[in-house]
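Anyone? Bumping this.
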Amino acid sequence: MQFLYSGLTSGSIYGLVALGFNIIYNTTGLINFAQGEFVMLGGMLIYSLFCVFEVPFYTALPLTLLGCFIIGVLYERVFINLARYKTEINLVTLTIAASIIMRDVAMHIWGRDSLRVDDYIPVVNVQMPGGVISSQSILIIAVSMLVAWGLNMFLKKSKYGKAMRACFDDQTAAETCGINVRSVRIMSFAVSSAMAGIAGVIISPITFVTYDDGIMIGLKGFAAAILGGLGNFWAAVAGGLLLGIFESFSASVIPSGYKDAMAFFVILLILFLKPDGLFGRKKATRV
Amino acid sequence: MLDINNIGVSFGGVHALSKVTFTMPDKGISALIGPNGAGKTTLFNVITGFVTPKEGTVKFSGEDITGSRSEQVFLKGISRTFQNLNIIPELTLRENMYLGFIGKEKPSALATMMRFNRGYWKETTKRINDCLDFVNVTEYADMTPGSVPYGVLKNFELGRAFMSSPKLLLLDEPAAGLNLAEKENLAGMVRKIQSMGICILMVEHDMQFISSLADFVVCLNFGQVIAAGTYAQVRENKDVLKAYLGDEDA
């Protein structure tokens, strides 16, 4: 059971990152490989505000998310919008380039060392059946689920959510209905960056934050999105949780040095056996 | 209502439209006819901002809208349907119908998400239901387009375009693929829309359909206007006959 609890904690974070991948994929059809860098950015910003400048947490949190949101807008305007030929391969290459630039800039600002972010809540171990779970882990799981639920509501119920879905499914129809596709695209990058920022904020006290954290967490989030099925929000959350649990249990049977390789093993397995993901739906096409 | 002045569009070396000029009347139903490849849909795409002309202007109610983006054209009061259906496959017809409204409405995301603004939702839901009912698709409202017959979807697209209360409605081959009963039903709906004061410009190949509806007809051939006037005038025009039937000397 202990493996299950730790798997659920890391899986919640992978789920949040996978949700960020899904938002951008659902509106632009693009995989943003700089998603992990926004998680790192969330951690770095909360470290600077909360630990260095000693801004109260309830002010530091919205400022961090706002920072990620604004950087997300700038990211879209600079890296995506300025691309002359917006082919998928060009844009994906640009996201990889952007992730490297963000990582290097972070290294120059915050240095190479791991930075410790103070706990937001008192650390207490809660006794559960078959093991213990820390209050921080409970916070991570609760926040992730709350964000996933909120995002689901936003996309299904709000007019912006419907506009986002419309842009992905049929850009021409969306434009004909008066939807500003450009604004929706910017908004999707901004929301997805803020979501990655939330992930960065809530894991920092447990994992600490280092300038190159984004690579691994980004790739694992991507693996979770693939596992669940790209394009489906609850599937991304489920994919994240399954990946976290799988990773955690695998550490009990094989050397823990191989733990990170599990995410990529999962990607390969899914691509070989079920390319649409565990919960992905095949699109029906009228002929 | 709509002034098309000297519009020219080229795709590579192909002149899709050349010096197209006509003025659409302020009221009633107008039709754009011509053989396949005449440039009718291209002209629709120019009017609705999907194609930017290399020359000429499009004026709508006196305002130059040449080169405006599609969503801006929509906000000025021009809605359209497509020759090939453009309905969001992942959304139900009811949700798709809401999209026809969404661009013009400005409630906050939070209000629409949490349903705080009950008055707005009550009014919007009524309008969606009225539009679904108007185009006879109520029984399919909660289905996605993939499981709905083609004729129903054609009607639906008309309803979605009508949903935004446009001043001008562009219909691209609305009767294509419909059987006789469906065409008669469609003609009734088009007349009803026109009676509400909405101008209609349609591209259509079915001459019987056009003769029963259109007050003003423009004929295009090889990207140029070859005739304009009432249906009877255009039908008698020698260039139009030649375009449709071929040259007797050939």
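Late reply, but here is one note on the structure posted above: Chain B has a mean pLDDT of 87.
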